[in-house]
Amino acid sequence: MKIVTFNQKETSQIALEFDELIPDKIYQWEKKDFEKYEVPIGNSRFLLRNYFDVDIEGSAESPADVKIIINGDLTRVKYIGFAMSAGEIVVNSSVDLHCGSEMSGGEIVVNGDAESYAGREMTGGILTIKGNTREFCGASYIGDWRGMTGGTIMVHGSAGKQLGECLTGGEIYVRGDCDILAGIHMTKGYIQIDGDVTRWPGGQMQGGNIVINGKLARLLEGFVDPEIVINPEISGKQLNGKYIKYTGDIARNGKGNLYLDAEKNRNFL
Amino acid sequence: MEYILKNGIVYDPTNDVEGEKKDVMFKDGKIVDDVSPNAKEIDVTDKLVMAAGVDPHSHIAGPKLVVGRLYRPEDSRRGIVPKKGVTRAETGFSIPSCPATGYRYSRMGYGTVVEAAMPPLEAKHTHEEINTIPNLDIAPLPLFGNNWFTMEYAKEGKIDDLAAFVSYWLKLVKGYGIKLVNPCGGEAWGWGMNVHGIDDPAPYFDVTAREVITALAKANEKLALPHSIHLHPNDLGHPGNYGTTVESMKIVKGISKNSPVRNQTVHMTHIQYHSYAGTNWRDFESAASDVANFINDNDYITCDVGQITLDETTTMTADGPMEFDLHQLNGLKWANKDIELETASGIVPFIYSGRNSVHSVQWAIGLEMFLLVHNPWQIFLTTDSPNAGPFIRYPRVISWLMSNKRRTEMIENREVHKAVEKKSMLATIDREYDFNEIATISRAAPAKAYGFTDRGHLGIGANADIAVYDIKPNDIDPSAEHEAIEKGFGNATYTFKDGKILVKDGEIVDIVPSRTLWTNVSGLEAEEEAIVEKIMPSFNKYYTIKFENYKVHDHFVPNPIAVNVQAGKAGK
Questions:
Q1: Given an 8 Å threshold on Cβ–Cβ distance, is B73 in contact with A141?
Q2: What is the helix (H) or strand (E) element at residue A34, kind and residue range?
């Protein structure tokens, strides 16, 4: 196992981009490689060593043998874990945009909040956000109709708008609340929100499952045929309790399922 | 500046040079037969030398490109190349940014491209975009096939009035020739309808595609334009449409050519999309042999293929109803726009997959057309970029054409669906293109069809638009080494434009501004004046802009190349 620790020395007003500092690319790097490495900042590159001290322990035969630990204030560091396929990244801070986006394997743990587009277009791996995240978590990128296709995102706090937009596979769990249009345009996959949801989950969804264990403020008219289900098994997961099950969004001839906790959402019955 | 390219293997079909080891000399941007001892010598020993490529049908400038980029940011994310040396950053795959468009054509050794659909109302913007594409000469074709004035004149059989109208409009919008897209169908789309076949009248105008094609073809010859009518026939992409295609070609049969610089009186574009048999997508199959046989029997026709490249791409066309059909078929996002009195339009992303039976048969039909049309002067290399695939795939298409082995591999290895074997005859065709035929379909023949006498060949006096490829024709076996062929044609060792080195070893080393090719018809000035006066009430009534704001003023076209022709007489 190789442990690479980044300890921040300086912050930057313009975000640093860490997409090249993933286990896949650095598993054979030595201290001297980090010393001469220039990190993208805006439209230029600057020496990483101006911003971070890097310590290396052990060695790695493959990306899977690498654990990266990043310490400091990383609210202006983007693309952490972008497109990684193996290994582990632990971030002891909140992070900027695109954390874990396009990752296909490995694990990222963010001990803080994550800005928008966390886990965007993931195809595999596990992304855990111990704090909150903002818009487009596990979503597609602007314009695309293909979002996250695999892997798992765990958000211990709350999530912003359009969580899991265009989800075509994988699982997203949010323990806190969630803003509007969770699972919009989703075709497959599973979203579970334990907190409250503001409005319109599953808009234009054609398939997949959304479970809301909190209170929903507004439901779209495209969800029809409510039925009460007890202790349902959804996507291989056994839920406990009474749920209202809807099918929709009929605006797109959708056959997705939306499950609402029946006790907290009696107003829909 | 004088150059001498030493010892290349030259293919120049226009001048009957087929694989000769010889020097190519040029001075001040023109090919010459001698240079001074001071000429700079470039050693290209045994390397493939051709005139720079001429793309006869591509969509690279205009509002459809802008809309495509705006609503497909996911495409812009593909093909990102940071700025390097003299180049700006590049973005996009099927709809590259303007600089990327120029760079990518240059890297393939191309120098001239025809922008195949310019709505006259959007011509200003098209020219502005042309001005931001470097390194190319670009000829835009204005759309006339669904123009209200065209349809009125066609209905009434007023060919002289139509000719004057076209002549004036080419000047007005700085266009090169006459483009028709789904004639009458685009107008029908304004009412949510389409026309089917050439005898189905446009609603309210009561005029048919047959009448519009006939009228525009006659007007084209009356004006002696350097290019023939450029026809995107009706029923694009519909199973069973080959009948419409053949009937459309028959319409022009009796019309006499009035130009010494081209052979054809009709150019059929993206013929692959128009060579389908069957009645629906289940029994859909190739009708390439029927269409190819007709072309083989009639030398007044040229065509380009629109070869499917099996990529995720962006379809964009003035054939609005077709785009709606496509959107219904694949469910992906759809952009639609009505261009007032002129045309419909639409854009839909499309993923052509070798795992899909229909897409695979479409792929096979394109290749069948290339291989079944006997005369390479009648069929040109295109992907109808970006509709059937981006133009950067031309080298791959060339590798398919030169290698039956590769085509067979794709079929046998199931890189394409097994339906190819049942629904096309591609697997039974073993023809392989040679370098001379490649030079013909990618530069010599398109140049001839457009009357580009100064390019597409390496004769004395021609523009020094030259491509040198890192391919040794006398050593390579294209059939076996198809990957080397694709790589070689995709990364020119040198691309010269007007004698300047733009590409060296696959890298852009210089940038020159684009130029606009347009046709300036003289001899009908009085008729043009009369026609403008005549149509002005309708123009002011139906267009949303004033006529004074319609014209493309000179500053929109800072680098024009006017091709002067005399109406009624053979073009220069």
A1: yes
A2: helix A31-36
A63: nearest Cα among A78, A37, A84: A84
CA distance A219 to chain B (A): 25
Domain boundaries, chain B: 50-508
HSE-up of residue B508 (Cα within 13 Å, Cβ side): 26
Tokens of B426: 């591609």
* Contact flag A142-B73 (C-beta cutoff 8 Å): yes
Q: Pseudo-torsion of CA B368, B451, B11, B496, nearest 10°?
A: -120
Surface-to-core class of residue B229, CB atoms within 10 Å of its CB (0-12 exposed, 13-18 middle, 19+ buried): buried
* Encoded amino acid at B367, one letter: L
How many whole angstroms separate alpha carbon B266 and alpha carbon B397?
24
Does B74 contact chain A (CB < 8 Å)?
Answer: yes
Q: Could you give the C-alpha distances from B294 to A192, B301, B441, B485, in angstroms and in order?
A: 61, 9, 19, 31
Kind plus residue range of the DSSP H or E element containing B158: none
* Nearest residue in A to B78, CA atom: A144
Q: Smallest CA–CA separation between B75 and chain A, in Å?
A: 8
DSSP helix/strand/coil, B183 = coil
Segment B142-171, tens digit of pLDDT: 999 999 999 999 999 999 999 999 999 999
Residue-number span of the structural domain to which A78 is assigned: 2-268
Beta bridge partners of B313: B350
- For chain B, how far is it from start to end, CA to CA, in angstroms? 28
Which residues of B are less than 8 Å from A143 in CB distance? 71-75
Q: Which CATH class is domain B50-508?
A: alpha beta
Taking the CA of residue B329 and the nearest CA in chain A, the distance in Å comes to: 14
User: Which residues neighbour A77 within 8 Å (Cβ) at sequence distance 6 or greater?
Assistant: A15, A16, A17, A18, A70, A95, A96
- Output the CA torsion sign for A110, A113, A117, A121: positive
The tokens describing A167, both together, are: 């989800």
Q: Tokens for A156?
A: 């211990």
The verdict on a CB contact (< 8 Å) between A141 and B71 is no
- Comparing CA positions, the residue from A204, A194, A196, A154 lying closest to residue A179 is A196
What residue type is assigned to position B305 of the chain? V
CA atoms of B19 and B21, how far apart (whole Å)? 7
CA of B128 vs chain A CAs: smallest distance (Å): 26
Chain A residue closest in CA terms to B72: A143
Q: What does each of the 269 residues of chain A score in pLDDT, given as a tens digit?
A: 999 999 999 999 999 999 999 999 999 999 999 999 999 999 899 999 999 999 999 999 999 999 999 999 999 999 999 999 999 999 999 999 999 999 999 999 999 999 999 999 999 999 999 999 999 999 999 889 999 999 999 999 999 999 999 999 999 999 999 999 999 999 999 999 999 999 999 999 999 999 999 999 999 999 999 999 999 999 999 999 999 999 999 999 999 999 999 999 999 88
Tokens representing B146? 């669904």
Nearest CA in chain B to A145: B332
Helix (H) and strand (E) counts in chain B:
19, 24
As for how many domains chain A has, the answer is 1
Q: How buried is A61 (Cβ within 10 angstroms: 0-12 exposed, 13-18 middle, 19+ buried)?
A: exposed
Report how far residue A90's alpha carbon sits from residue A108's, in angstroms, rounded to the nearest whole number.
6
Contacts of B75 in chain A (CB under 8 A): 143
Q: Name the residue of chain A whose CA is nearest to B83's CA.
A: A43
Q: Please check whether residue B457 is in contact with residue B377, taking contact to mean a CB–CB distance below 8 angstroms.
A: no
Question: A44: nearest CA in chain B?
Answer: B82
Q: Which residues of A touch B (CB under 8 A)?
A: 140-145
Q: How far apart are CA B83 and CA B66, in angstroms?
A: 21
Q: Give the separation between CA A250 and CA A58, rounded to whole angstroms.
A: 56
Within the 326-345 window of chain B, which residues sit less than 8 Å (CB to CB) from chain A?
332-333
C-alpha distance from B72 to closest chain A C-alpha (Å): 6
